[in-house]
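ESCALATION

Customer reports they have been waiting on this structure for their group meeting. Please prioritize. Original submission:
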Amino acid sequence: MADLWRRMTRIYGRRWMSSYGETDDGTWLKGLQGLTPAQVGRGLSRCATHRADGWPPTLPEFRTLCTPTAKDLRLPPLDAAYREAARADRDHRWSHPAVYAAAQVTGLFELRTLPESKSRPLFDRAYEIVVRRVLAGEQFDTPIPKGLEKQVTPARRQVAETALTAIRALLRRIMAKIR
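Update from on-call: job pushed to the front of the queue and completed.
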């Protein structure tokens, strides 16, 4: 924390000291918990271009500066990712594993055979989830449930009642075995 304080003082001078004091009172230490040294370094690098008025960032602003962006991680924009996934064949060399993961969730067959109006919303949802996971530093190869179509037709009453009757009968058989 002392190193961060020295570097911020060099960048912002007396503006840093007048805003946050000569040393951290523990607020910044607690607020930056969970960040890696590389992330804090990214935040310090971005301080030079953060604000035109020359004032130091607040703690939440600095934490945002530390967070990698999709561009930092060389993730392609959504449109480019979709075009790549829709055109990919079996031997395709993926631009980023996140594009591949989203294509797998959507289904390569679906991407090639469904019209864009059907496949694009499915891919967009999957890619947004994968990108969110990548930016959060999480594993993005864990399963992502497929999205539902926007128009879901509710079951007819008779179909629902038949299903409920079958479920009740199954539960009765299970409860009878337990007793």
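Sent to customer with the following note: The longest helix spans residues 157-178.
Escalation resolved.
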